[in-house]
């Protein structure tokens, strides 16, 4: 049986959940951050308007505010994020029971045994993305491939709300020209 692996990544997860409950913030630069008073004052997530100012996850809040003086900070609400994470997992479970979580906002799904019922990996990815929008009010990016590493790479390549297929017949053209640092677990030390 041919393997079909999806990597699903909920886009800007914490910030997207916050903007869902505060629609007036959607078009403004927003970061979700830890508690500066408790010395946990870093950016945990940012929306796309904040990202446009060069704000990165892990930035210290004061540095983020220097990059974007009108930046809106929102405290993290992990209870809410876990709720949405659970709802996303329930959607995944409609397509496969082979789910490997990778944090609260990402997961690999082995849908190899499901394609006969739901269509190709691309079709399943599209259906999951559609359900994220209609049922959760969020977007996700999905990588479809024959292994976990390329599926993860695919979900990172196009955001937000996109599907990228890296197949056995095109992986050389897609992957080989990329910097090696784009692969999962390949960092500066590697």
From TrEMBL:
| A molecular function GO annotation | DNA-directed DNA polymerase activity
Pfam (any one): IMS
One cellular component (GO) term of this entry: cytosol
Q: In this protein, which residues make up the domain named UmuC?
A: 5-187
Q: Which GO terms describe its biological process?
A: DNA repair; error-prone translesion synthesis; SOS response
Q: Which InterPro entries match?
A: DNA/RNA_pol_sf (IPR043502), DNA_polymerase-Y (IPR050116), DNApol_IV (IPR022880), Rev_trsase/Diguanyl_cyclase (IPR043128), UmuC (IPR001126)
Q: Which family does it belong to?
A: Belongs to the DNA polymerase type-Y family.
UniProt-recorded name of the protein:
ImpB/mucB/samB family protein
């Amino acid at each position: 049986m041919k393997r079909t692996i999806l990597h699903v990544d909920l886009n800007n997860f914490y910030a997207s959940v916050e903007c869902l409950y505060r629609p007036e913030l959607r078009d403004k630069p927003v970061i979700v951050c830890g508690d500066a008073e408790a010395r946990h004052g870093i950016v945990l997530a940012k929306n796309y308007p904040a990202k446009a100012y060069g704000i990165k996850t892990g930035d210290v809040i004061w540095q983020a505010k220097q990059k974007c003086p009108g930046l809106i900070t929102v405290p993290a609400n992990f209870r809410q994020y876990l709720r949405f994470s659970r709802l996303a997992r329930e959607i995944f479970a409609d397509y496969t029971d082979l789910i490997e979580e990778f944090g609260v906002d990402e997961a690999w799904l082995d849908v190899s045994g499901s394609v006969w019922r739901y269509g190709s990996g691309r079709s399943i990815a599209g259906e999951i993305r559609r359900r994220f929008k209609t049922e959760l009010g969020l977007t996700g990016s999905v990588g479809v491939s024959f292994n976990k590493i390329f599926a993860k790479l695919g979900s990172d390549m196009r955001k937000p709300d996109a599907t990228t297929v890296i197949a056995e017949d095109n992986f050389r053209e897609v992957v080989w020209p990329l910097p090696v640092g784009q692969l999962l677990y390949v960092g500066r030390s590697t």
